[in-house]
Amino acid sequence: MFRADLHIHSRFSRATAKNLTIRNLASWAYIKGIHLLGTGDCTHSTWLKELEDALMYNEHTGFYTLKQPLTKEDILFHTHIPVHTITFQPEFILQGEISCIYKKLGATRKNHNLVFFPNFEIAKKFNSKLAKIGNLESDGRPILGLDAKNLLAMVLEYQDSFFIPAHIWTPWFSLFGSKSGFNSIEDCFEDLTAEIFALETGLSSDPPMNRLCSSLDRFVLISNSDAHSSENLAREVNIFHEKTNYNDLFASLQRKNTNFYGTVEFFPEEGKYHADGHRACNVCFTPTQSKEHNLLCPVCHKPLTIGVQFRVEELADRKEPIKTQEQFESLIPLKEILAQCLKVGIKTKKVTEKYQFLIQNLGAELDILQLVPLEQINALDEQLGHAIYKMRKNDVTCQSGYDGEYGQILIV
Predict the structure, then answer these.
(1) How far apart are CA 184 and CA 74, in angstroms?
(2) Backbone dihedral region for residue 343 (phi beyond 0: left; psi -120 to 50: alpha; all else: beta)
(3) With contact defined as beta carbons under 8 Å apart, do 331 and 391 qualify?
């Protein structure tokens, strides 16, 4: 199993942790069990320079590794978790996210897109061209008045460079978002639609929801953390059957080989835009309830923030999702499970100490959630073992997130 989190951010993006350095990210990637990590923010010159100073190209994989290998001391310093041995070195892929805000088909469009480059030389060439359009230095995720189709055309000019629409259902900044999106991929990308091969589902949707739309059948669905802090890495990740390389990875995302297994997902209800509502008014609605209220908040009478579930139902042309060769499973972050077991807040000392103990004794977080036999978990904590058993069986209670408020997945 080879895990890849291909959409993250650096400290140069807005609303991100200030301790996001490359060694900090590598340390947490190891704790989480991520083998390949996006660099985030590869369009930002200062961050790109830091990456270039810290990373070296691996000719065998086409990925980047730390020039100074990750050590146990690094991991302890950045995560406060002692590990017994280093079993792998996290690798990196040059990745960025670009916010496109522009007018098309009579409306203002706002969508985010992921870009990937094979090496620093090409990334710099792309950045030089992109900098003529807008300011790349004010935000690690630059905001540009650029049609997404034109951005795609720019990426296609560079060999082995790739483009994937990000978190496609999020209301405010996405391909299908209720506030500023399109009703079809063709409306957005026109004659370049055939160049789109994968879509990022985002935290508030999962593959079965997307597979209700026949227009999305040909696309591989990927999932990433979109982490703004190191501890949020691996909220969602992509799984490959075997260790991969740069060319193989994108070939598998184009279904040119079968190495892509599928994704690890949030339960979509936990995403902060799954349902409709108004956070300020404490109103959370299903699509049916929203329609009953004419899409207006019954408290303040302003338009509701229409969420992902509503948009999926609006564009769906199936009652049941089709099955594809890609698999998925839904997980709850380990600290959230511990907080429920211990009946305390997720940021409390009890949760932190228990988390550290489990990583020391059972391995990486995703291994604990996915792979570690329940007998081993039960030997350390029977209540936790039972909770993980229920999660693996999808025996959970969901309270949907809405209007920027994360939902809750109750398991204990």
Answers:
(1) 46
(2) left
(3) yes
